Amino acid sequence: MAGGAQLSVTDMRRASRHPVDYSVIAEHLMHGDVKLHVSNISAHGFMIDEIKNIGRGDRLIIRLPAVGRIEAYCIWVTEDRAGFQFERIIRLDDFQTMIQEMQPNPALRRRG
Q: Could you tell me the pTM of the whole model?
């Protein structure tokens, strides 16, 4: 029996991403607490910039508004950015509340 999350990103890359400017402390298995800057987020995952000690396949646990603690896996890395997939999809009502808290600037919020 295989362990760990069964991740599939082929269809999720089209998920609606919301631009955010949000700093968070993540728990990294090997590096302990790591400060991250989240630059966009969707119900399936998020992207960070200014990466340090993050590699493809790394697991993090972060705490998000309205969602609480959630595990995420690094699925891609470039020179200065990394993309993570949540271990579960965030419920719509929690996601909307989270975005309201993460995007205090109304100009960043999606209309409709």
A: 0.79
DSSP 17: P
Structural domains for the chain: 12-104 (2.40.10.220)
Close Cβ partners of 66 (under 8 Å, ≥ 6 residues apart): 94, 95, 97, 98, 101
Tell which phi-psi region holds residue 56, choosing left (phi > 0), alpha (psi between -120 and 50) or beta: beta
16 band by pLDDT with thresholds 50, 70 and 90: confident
**Dihedral pair phi/psi, residue 30, rounded to 5°:** -95, -30
Cβ burial of 81 (10 Å; 0-12, 13-18, 19+) is middle
- The β-bridge partners of 64 are 68
How far is the C-alpha of 72 from the C-alpha of 25, rounded, in Å? 13
